[in-house]
Amino acid sequence: MPHHHNTIISLNPTDWEQLITNALRAHHIRLTQPRRAIIQWIAGQPALFSAEALAAALAPPPASVSRATVYRMVDYLHDHGWLARIQTERGLYAYARTMPGHHHHAICLRCGTTLLIDGCAILDEITVLLAQHGFTVQNHLLELTGLCQRCQVSAR
Ligand SMILES: [Zn+2]
Ligand SMILES: [Zn+2]
Known about the structure:
This protein is an alpha+beta fold.
């Protein structure tokens, strides 16, 4: 009963890379060398990253991936649910790995560790409250940001 409880999933980068590789194959999208380099770089990020940092990292040889290719791929991954886009404390956009489907994310602002929250039970109370005010909720978006356990320990 996905609507009556929440499950927390910690997304492992190796699984993410494997899932996305399979999904691209299933969609008949060729895993070209630049696309492979982009996916591998993202999978290797411990932290939230910017499209700018990705473009800068892969511009020099041997990767030599063009900025246009980087930005197209980041848009593709975001549009297809493989990257969550969040606004950081400094007001810039950053990305974190995620999986397609309806999830909520708890993203560590320091290292980018992402917990996926499966299920929307957390919103039941507000939905009922809004209904009492004549408002019907049709859709929702909820992202949580904070510090993961490891970063809280290292901040002490
Ligand atoms: Zn963290
Ligand atoms: Zn939801």
